[in-house]
Amino acid sequence: MRIGELAKTTGTTARALRHYEQARLISSQRAPNGYRIYDERAVVRVRNIRYLLAAGLTLDDVHVFLPCLDGDLAAAPPSDKGLRVALERLAVLNQRIAAQTEARDRLEAALREKTGDRIRPVA
After folding, report:
1. Nearest-CA neighbor of 9 among 33, 41, 32, 35?
2. What is the pLDDT of residues 74-110, one digit of tens each?
3. Angle at 72 (CA atoms; ends 75, 79), nearest 5 degrees
4. Residue 37 and residue 31: Cα distance in Å, rounded?
5. What is the DSSP letter of 24?
6. How far apart are CA 30 and CA 49, in angstroms?
7. pTM reported for the whole predicted model
């Protein structure tokens, strides 16, 4: 299948697919006209990549999961290395959330001070 068909089937973009290929997470063959051609297995692989990215992992993190990207990733038992990467990413996300929460709280406090407590935080 060509890149546009794979993008449509997996709910992603051709640009993202080229990025995954550059990161060596997927591969393609070249047709005589230069178009990228992907086999049917790429559909499962791309969906699994998107699943991991949506869970907060990075493309570099996804490399740890290469051995199981072609199967039912969600049902596969986690490897020790996969768990370690996921836990490290969770710690990073928690740190970012804490930093953003602190920044929000400081901004809200400054606004309250400057406006005489007349503001309402936007949800």
Report:
1. 41
2. 888 888 999 999 999 999 999 999 999 999 999 988 9
3. 60
4. 6
5. T
6. 22
7. 0.81
